[in-house]
Amino acid sequence: MALFAGFSFPAANAQRIPTWPDNKIAVSLSYDDALASQLDNAVPALNKYNFKASFYIVPNSANVQS
After folding, report:
1. Among 9, 23, 52, 66, which residue has the least CB neighbours within 10 Å?
2. What is the DSSP string of 1-51?
3. First CA to last CA across the chain, in angstroms?
4. Average pLDDT for the chain
5. Rounded to 5 degrees, what angle do the CA atoms 16, 21, 23 make?
6. Contact 31, 53 (CB under 8 A)
């Protein structure tokens, strides 16, 4: 997370993609399968840097407790 917070890396040729307002950069973070480590590690790191992410949970997964 600190790497994303401190640096920016182009993902594509800048001439082929539109610019974001105020020249900001967008990164999409997604987490799959509701692993316990995501709650224990990813969420605190995301909160520390005020990052947002998408969590995709599979309801019938062994990782999801009812």
Report:
1. 66
2. -HHHHH----SS-TTTSPPPGGG------EEETT-HHIIIIIHHHHHHTT-
3. 30
4. 73
5. 65
6. yes
Which residue is it, tokens 């082929």? 16
Buried b (16+ CB within 10 A) or exposed e, 31-48: beebeeebeeebeeebee
Cβ–Cβ < 8 Å for 1, 46: yes
Joined together, the tokens standing for residue 33 give 């399968």
Predicted confidence (pLDDT) per residue in 17-48, tens digit:
677 788 787 778 887 776 778 878 888 998 99
SS3 label, residue 56: strand
